[in-house]
Amino acid sequence: VVSNRGPLSFRRDDHGALEARRGAGGLVSSLGPLVQGTGASWIAAALSEDDRAAAGAGVVEAEGFRTRMLAIDPDDHRMAYDVISNATLWYLHHGLYDLPRRPIIDGRWYEAWDAYRRVNKAFADTVAAEAPNGAVVLVQDYHLALVGGMLAARRPDLAAVHFSHTPFCGPNSIRVLPEAVAVELLRGMTAYRACGFHTERWARAFAACCRDVLGSEPATFVSPLGPADDVREVAASSACEDGLRWVGNVAGDRKLVVRVDRIELSKNIVRGFLAFDHLLASRPEWREHVVFLALVYPSREGLADYLAYRNEVASTIERINRRWATPSWTPIVLDDSDDYPRSVAALRAYDALLVNPIKDGMNLVAKEGALVNERDGVVCLSRDAGAWDELGGAAVEVHPYDLLATADALHAALTMGPSERAQRAKSLHDTVAARTPKHWLDEQLAAAHR
Amino acid sequence: VVSNRGPLSFRRDDHGALEARRGAGGLVSSLGPLVQGTGASWIAAALSEDDRAAAGAGVVEAEGFRTRMLAIDPDDHRMAYDVISNATLWYLHHGLYDLPRRPIIDGRWYEAWDAYRRVNKAFADTVAAEAPNGAVVLVQDYHLALVGGMLAARRPDLAAVHFSHTPFCGPNSIRVLPEAVAVELLRGMTAYRACGFHTERWARAFAACCRDVLGSEPATFVSPLGPADDVREVAASSACEDGLRWVGNVAGDRKLVVRVDRIELSKNIVRGFLAFDHLLASRPEWREHVVFLALVYPSREGLADYLAYRNEVASTIERINRRWATPSWTPIVLDDSDDYPRSVAALRAYDALLVNPIKDGMNLVAKEGALVNERDGVVCLSRDAGAWDELGGAAVEVHPYDLLATADALHAALTMGPSERAQRAKSLHDTVAARTPKHWLDEQLAAAHR
User: Fold this and answer.
1) What is the mean pLDDT of each run of 10 residues along chain B (450 residues)?
2) B244-252 CB contacts, 8 Å cutoff, 24+ apart
3) 3-state secondary structure of B299
4) Distance from the A229 Cα atom to the nearest Cα atom in chain B, whole angstroms
5) For residues B410 and B385, is the Cβ–Cβ distance under 8 A?
6) Residues 6+ positions from B338 with CB-CB distance below 8 Å
């Protein structure tokens, strides 16, 4: 397995010795348990000084993982990660650019692209040097798009596949990149045995880009990822019980709308609140009778856009609460503590879960909610989330730009009769439970062997 | 002919009588001379109180035009024009939305959509009532997309075609509209005998939208429009000679870069200046030796976005001039007077013409420049302008987001040897001169009769 963030991170213990800890992040939660104990190697970037020290030790075996940390130049990593991965490719694939103004492709951007190339090469070099003959190499996500092209000539014996956890932009958007960069990116990806996506839609968009830019048809596969098994373990934990009491205190005997998200431009958090505001304005019967619990926590605050968006989120909540709050009722309750057991508790307790991204590779919150909710809660889901392709039948549709439709979806969810709720909740649950991360892993392996 | 803006506008003379004057606008310049004196009817919206008074008079014949002004409710027209045509469809087709924040589809937006529908219906009703049996109806632009659907059932004898002067958005972008609205829009358009576009690219994007949203393949045709004949008349006028003297005073014996644009988000004016700034920073030999004459004038200032963009344009110029100006040299000279003879003078005199839109249906400035320039000037043209498809061979390519590539294009243009300049200029001129608005009109008529 090859990914930017690995399954272990390191820190010094009291005696100055390096100590391995289980790393964080969605990929590690999903894939970690399947890789643990198998003897498979996991190559990842060193993300801290202590990680870099561990990288010097070569392969480290700990917590059942066989990891190899790469001591990439920190400036290179930062430029590749911030400027290219997160402020270019992420923006492009999620449609986040304010195009009259951004991106500005200048000298600094080209330096960052060079850094992205070097970071990808560091990964490719390590794989080329260390992978056993004929090994399967599973490269994860947009940070490492070029590794395939760098490996193909040197190690044709390897069966390398790439998996994108994001959407993929269409042919109009790929033109935002300099032509040579678009060619390099897509050639890097098409050099893999196959490129995987969460939904047919993203695979089609990628194929359309390849046809337009390269004039060739890529090998793709579609394999939706499901939530990690540990969400059910967390749901059964005492920390989650504490969380459930906290959520109960917030909601009282009111209906409960929940959202759980990083504060991320693509998650469409502000429009979600505006739709709730419209619900309260247009249907007075909901005033005092519903609470919107927003478990949203800061993310990528090194990017000015994300700081600005966080302020917009906060001021929108303030404005709506000022408009509607009564002495005994706060319409929107914000919790930015990023407390996972508490988030899972909110997922157990919602009457309606709002998941309204403008674009999302998959969206695991919708699936986690479906798995652990205990109140036949309704999932209000954006048609532009990858998860929509699996859950669209049983979820209530949200159009991410349409406040009236979003308010209607919330109203429909909150007024739905018990038998329809139960039926939809069961359908959501069964759909999600039927696919584990093991299915997803097996489909990557199958794609590598095709 | 059916269009929002017609060939005549009206005002009261000193005695209070209505007086017809030739209307302004690109469509009237191109199509006007071809329609004048033919007896064809031109149906357009009344845009002022005096126009509305003229509308009461029914068909008005003046200046060789047979016009019928529609007295549409001013609130309806304003909402349809501002909110739907200019702040929704224009944004969508040019990729101007900052999607994490805009659009917000709320109650006001739906009211505006109703108004857009009513405005389209007013046009359709008039055509249905007045068009002779079997007439050809040429409906112009995105303001009137629905007329086709409204006519099809009532007057199947009519041969109605639609022509889009904008690009057309792709299937990812059309999803920004509420589903029912996207269906209504595309059904309205596919009900025409055919929909015309300036380039194959926009026709393909429209077809992809129809396949995704309607599941059907539309009838399209491609017919690039050329500049109106009057640009050569203006070039020969004494007002233009005055303009040429003014331009000569601005440029002195320095090289002259020119741009002529409405201050419009899609025109990418700020990045053009930033690229010029980069040119001066990276190639000191150009300091004091080149002037960038920007004939850019305010537009759509009723929209806050356009006011903001105008301020960004002004502050960018100030900043760059502060950085580089010397007592005898101002690097960027702004003229916002919208003086057409002066603009044509600048087109006669440029060494390099910068046309770098992020997206543009066609861009007639590039073609007008090619037609009237007298110095074998080089056209630096965005690959995302429709005109690129015709002029790409002889123009120098500009990547609209890439400041380095744009600066390189300007440098290449300004240092190009005389024989290559002459060859490219001739090729540009001949390509443009070979297609007149008559070709474009004939191709619409042919599409209507197919």
Assistant:
1) 95 91 83 93 94 90 94 96 97 98 98 98 97 97 98 96 97 96 98 98 97 98 92 96 98 98 97 98 98 96 92 98 98 96 98 98 97 98 98 97 98 98 98 96 96
2) B244/B345, B244/B348, B244/B349, B246/B342, B246/B345, B247/B293, B247/B342, B247/B345, B247/B346, B247/B349, B248/B349, B250/B291, B250/B293, B250/B333, B251/B291, B251/B293, B251/B349, B252/B291
3) coil
4) 32
5) no
6) B297
Compute and round to an integer the Cα radius of gyration of chain A: 22
- Using the Cβ of B265 and the Cβ atoms of chain A, whether some distance falls under 8 Å is answered with yes
Asked if B64 has any chain A CB less than 8 Å from its own CB, the reply is no
Identify from A92, A94, A96, A98 which residue to disrupt to test chain B contact, counting B C-beta atoms within 10 A and taking the largest count: A98
C-beta atoms of B399 and A268 within 8 A: no
And the tokens for A395? 């979820």
Structure tokens at A26: 């969605």
**ipTM summary value:** 0.95
Give how far A158 is from chain B: nearest CA, Å.
35
| Residue A25 exposed, middle or buried by CB count within 10 Å (0-12, 13-18, 19+) | middle
The separation between CA A419 and the C-alpha centre of its own chain, rounded to angstroms, equals 32
Note if the bond before A103 is cis, omega within 30 degrees: yes
Amino acid at A26: G
Q: What is the pLDDT of residue A23?
A: 78
Residue B221, token pair as written in the block: 């045709």
Taking CB atoms and an 8 Å limit, are A399 and B106 in contact across chains? no
- Reduce the DSSP state of residue A273 to 3 states and report it: helix
The answer to whether B26 contacts chain A (CB < 8 Å) is no
Token pair in block for residue B66: 């047979």
For residue range A169-219, list pLDDT tens digits in order: 999 999 999 999 999 999 999 999 999 999 999 999 999 999 999 999 999
Q: Structure tokens of A364?
A: 């695991």
**B180 — contact with chain A (CB < 8 Å)?**
no
Residue type, A325: A
Per-residue burial over A199-217, b if 16 or more Cβ lie within 10 Å, else e, is bebbbbbbbbbbebbeeee
pTM over 0.90: yes
Chain B residues inside the 8 Å CB shell of A106: 274, 278, 403-404
- Closest residue by Cα to residue A186 from A155, A209, A204: A209
Report residue B428 as tokens.
């540009």
Q: Which residues of A touch B265 (CB under 8 A)?
A: 100
- The C-alpha R_g of chain B, in whole angstroms, comes to 22
Contacts of A104 in chain B (CB under 8 A): 271, 274, 401, 403
Using a CB-CB cut-off of 8 Å, the residues of chain B touching A175 are: 383-384
B residues 346-365 closer than 8 Å to A (CB): 358
By CB neighbour count within 10 A (0-12 exposed, 13-18 middle, 19+ buried), where does B113 fall?
buried
Residues in B touching A278 (Cβ below 8 Å): 106-107
Q: Which residue of B has its CA nearest to A267?
A: B100
Q: Say whether A404 and B175 touch across the interface (CB within 8 A).
A: no
User: Which helix (H) or strand (E) covers residue B28, if one does?
Assistant: helix B26-35
Mutate to test the interface with A, among B111, B166, B174, B175 (most CBs of A within 10 A): B175
Residue contact A99–B402, C-beta within 8 A: no
- The letter for the amino acid at B108 is R
| Interatomic CA distance for residues A151 and A164, integer angstroms | 18
Q: Is the peptide bond before B103 cis (omega within 30 degrees of 0)?
A: yes
> Cβ B401–A309 below 8 Å, yes or no?
no
A396's tokens: 């209530």
Q: Tokens standing for A200?
A: 């047919």
